[in-house]
Amino acid sequence: MRTPPRFSNPLWERNHVRVLISGVLTTALVAGALVFSHVQTDTYHQRLSRIDSELNQPLQLLNQDKVEWRTSQATFEDAIRATTNTQIAGLFAQALTEAGAAQRTWDRFKAIPVQFDGEQAQRDAIDSAITTHNAAGQQLGVAVLSPNPDPALGATLLADQLATATQLQNAFETLETQSYIPAVSDAIVQLETEAGEAGTTTLRAVALILLLGAALTVLGYRRAARRERASSRRRADAAQVAAENALDTQLQHALDMADTEARVFRVIGRALNPDGGQPTADFLMAESSIAPFSHVLDDPDGHVSRCGVLSANDCPAAKTGQELVFVDSRALDACPHLLDRDVIPGAAVCTPVSIAGRAIGVIHEPALLAGPAPAHRTRVLEIVARKAGERLGALRAFARSETQARTDPLTGLLNRRSLDAAVEQLVLGSVDYTLAFADLDHFKVLNDTYGHDVGDRALRLFCTVLQANVRPDDIVSRYGGEEFVVVLPRCTPAEAVPVLRRVQEALADTVRADGIPSFTVSMGVSSTYRGGTFEEILMMADGCLLHAKDEGRNRIVVAGVGEPIVGPSVADGAPRSGAGGDEHEIGRDAGEQTGEDAPHEDLGVAQLEGDLEELDHDVQDRPGGERQERDEQVVVHDGLADDRADEGGTAADDAEQTQLSPRGPVLVPGQGRHDAEALRGVV
User: Fold this and answer.
1) For residue 451, is it left (φ>0), alpha (ψ between -120 and 50) or beta?
2) 453 exposed, middle or buried (CB, 10 Å; 0-12, 13-18, 19+)?
3) Which helix (H) or strand (E) holds 436?
4) Do residues 161 and 133 lie in contact, with contact meaning Cβ atoms separated by under 8 Å?
5) How many CB atoms lie within 10 A of CB 249?
6) Do 366 and 346 form a contact (C-beta atoms < 8 A)?
């Protein structure tokens, strides 16, 4: 089937063409009226300039000359009243100078052509008056300055001179009032009249033009107005959609660069308040759907009316997972948290923030006036809430996966890979450290006797004790099984031993208080103060740990010090001891007898001092921060981990697996000086 032809109206009947034609005509006519008004204004200014040059300037010269003659006359009268010849002569000279200036001003005025009838006669009268005035002044001056002045003659001449001065001033007044002032006034009045008529004509023309333009515009206005409104709505919708898309894109880019939740909250705050004025929205966020809410947007000045909801379970918007708009806080169906707040009645929009389908936050934006919220604002809140939930969910998922990758799942401590990375940062920063290799004594027996649940509980308890007794920046990791590695940056072995003793004591107290089957920990200590790589330091600490096991467990062996430091007993009622104290075998609690029954003998202070002095002599200071190496070495069996997997082994087996010096393990090259006094305090 053929499509019927489309007949269009003639061009001049189309609405947009009518509006265009009327607009063009109106513009042209208004432009013509404005041009006419501009021409009239230029003419007005030109004539005003001519009046200024032809009338005002001569009038100003005339006034100036009149003032100068008056000044000269005043000086002349001061000379007559003077008492000494010197004063008289000086004032006469000044009067003559001022009269000369007045004469020059009059000559300048006479250079201007005559403009009015009778003006020449008035000028001649002024010339005659000036001549008479000057002559009278000269006669009076001669009479006053004569050696024998005649008072009667002086009085007569003074009266004549004053009369000539009055005559001169009258001549100036006549010229000014009869010629120039009337002419200037008439010219200005005429110019103002013409300008007013021109303005009236222009206004009438513009009014006529506007009336004509309005009439032409009304002819096609109705249909054009309807179409324009529809087009405006479409354009506004398109602009709003474009703005929302731009917000979506920019917000996505900004959130992609926010690598922490705090930065995400700052981005959200900027998105909710793009103009930087007073904030209006409140962002409540929780760690989970059951955790309490916290206000995460900055509001130092308290401009935001904060919502008092406590958690997602208490928030209607969070529970329903849908955006809620409350038109009036006084309404029957308003949010109860709006009713509980002591604020001015108004409206509010609450948009939930969800992560993986669970609402864990809400964006709350109150309004001071009751009424529905603008649609574009609710869409903005929806975009911000959706993007915030997506980014926060991604960050939390990444944090969980990163934590799982970096930490041991049972204890929460760093795993071996994270330990290597942390120590690598210390090495890059040239930071010395002390390393303690810890191993739970008879853990295999405890695990086999009481079960894996008790073993896991023992591991977690030891981790809690260990973390509670070291510094926040110390590195604590689970190296494998019941083995742990503690790295103490910027800490010498002498400073580390009291920390490790505190760990042993706290473990004994905690085991007794917790009711768990008793167990202890043995530790081997080494450091970078004598040089060596991380692997070498770890190997030396491992050798010291084996030496602690050989000596009966529950001990701390420091590389370079021959005798072990015995840890506290966990037996009920047993006294806590120092380096030479109680050494009950923890294996007895699990039914195993190891070592001899007699306690280990105390380490003599004299022998320990000898060890420290010899160790100090073996250590050289490090000029320029570089270690001086010595050719000392410890040889440790390659299968240490396999040997420690079976804690039931004998001390003789361990001795066969490890070659030790007569006084215990010896560190490799260049250890810095130990704090002997600190170690003496421990012992």
Assistant:
1) left
2) exposed
3) strand 433-440
4) yes
5) 10
6) yes
What's the start-to-end Cα distance of the chain, in Å? Answer: 110
Residue 13 has pLDDT above 60, yes or no: no
What percentage of residues in the chain have a pLDDT greater than 90? 23
Q: Give which of 403, 79, 389, 456 is closest to 251, Cα–Cα.
A: 389
Return the SS3 of 435: strand
User: Is the pLDDT score of 481 beyond 50?
Assistant: yes
The tokens for 290 are: 């059951």
DSSP assignment of 499-556 equals HHHHHHHHHHHHHHHHTPPP--EEEEEEEGGG---HHHHHHHHHHHHHHHHHTTSSEE
On the 0-12 / 13-18 / 19+ scale of CB atoms within 10 A, 248 is middle
Q: Residue 181 to residues 59, 188, 207, 399: CA-CA distances in angstroms?
A: 8, 11, 39, 95
- Interacting residues of 484 by C-beta distance below 8 A, sequence separation 6+: 413, 437, 438, 439, 462, 463, 466, 476, 477, 478
Q: How confident is the model at residue 475 (pLDDT cuts 50, 70, 90)?
A: very high
Task: Tell me the DSSP string of 266-312.
Answer: HHHHHHHSTT-SS---EEEE-SSTTSBPEE-S--TT--S------BG
Q: Is 233 helix (H, G, I), strand (E, B) or coil?
A: helix
Instruction: Decide if 210 contacts 30 (C-beta within 8 A).
Output: yes
Q: Where are the alpha helices (DSSP H) in 407-485?
A: 416-428, 443-450, 452-468
342: helix, strand or coil: coil
Q: How many other C-beta atoms can be found within 10 angstroms of the C-beta atom of residue 147?
A: 5
Q: What would the mean pLDDT of 373-394 be, rounded to a whole number?
A: 87
What string of DSSP letters covers 566-579?
A: EPPP-STTPPP--T
**Helix or strand holding residue 606 (H, E):** helix 605-618
Please say if the pLDDT value at position 422 is more than 60. yes
251 pLDDT more than 50:
yes
**Integer Cα distance of 227 and 235 in angstroms:** 12
Quote the DSSP letter at residue 56. I
Residues 155, 120: contact at Cβ < 8 Å? no
What gap in Å lies between CA 510 and CA 372, rounded to an integer?
Answer: 61
Q: What are phi and psi of 597, to 5 degrees?
A: -80, -30
User: Is residue 452 packed enough to be buried (19+ CB in 10 Å), middle (13-18) or exposed (0-12)?
Assistant: exposed
Query: In a 3-state reduction of DSSP, which class is residue 433?
Result: strand
How far apart are the C-alpha atoms of 167 and 132, rounded to whole Å?
A: 9
Per-residue confidence band for 253, with pLDDT thresholds at 50, 70 and 90: very high
Residue labelled with tokens 């190891």: 594
| C-alpha span between 264 and 248 (Å, rounded) | 15
Q: Which of 479, 488, 484, 476 is nearest to 438 (CA)?
A: 484
Contact assessment for residue 367 and residue 346, using Cβ atoms and an 8 Å cutoff: yes
**Per-residue DSSP letters for 148-164?**
S--HHHHHHHHHHHHHH
| Distance of alpha carbon 110 from alpha carbon 115, whole angstroms | 11
Structure tokens at 272: 């909710």
Residue 366: its H or E element? strand 358-367
Q: How far apart are CA 445 and CA 451, in angstroms?
A: 10
- Are the C-beta atoms of 595 and 585 separated by less than 8 Å? yes
